[in-house]
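User: quick one, fold this
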Amino acid sequence: MINHAASSANAVSPGILHVRDRPFTVLADLLARYDLQLHRVADGEKIPGSYWGEPEAGVIAHNVYVRDDTPIHSLLHEACHLIVLPPEQRARVHTDATDSDIEEDATCYLQIVLADAIPGVGRARLMADMDAWGYSFRLGSTKAWFEQDAEDAREFLQQRGLPHY
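Assistant:
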């Protein structure tokens, strides 16, 4: 089981990679591969569709909303919530993508895999950021979960033709 609520202390952590740390076009192009559109929200503005609140990413249908202070892991997490859903279900998403444990697991797994597609991020860095932010897994770390306890997430992704390596 996964819990990825961020603490307010982590919300200002300077060691975590943020949207501002990578070219926006690289991030937008990655999401476009999955028929998602990335939107930049102005600094200080409310992020539409953010379940956890600022600076966490938000989702509405096929759209992902971020600010420059949104953590990369949050952008990927919320985007992956949409990616694991069939397109007809994406259209109905507003703020809360799922209450399914397997979809949550698959989302976490896929966000780690997709981190490799962002220069200067990669899965090792993303997993470290997830741990620093406050994601929690029963094996104690994101890496341990990813390597030893995520077979169901891999199978879910494989069955849907999504990256799972």
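User: anything notable?
Assistant: The helical segments are 24-32, 72-83, 87-90, 101-115, 122-133, 142-148, 151-159.
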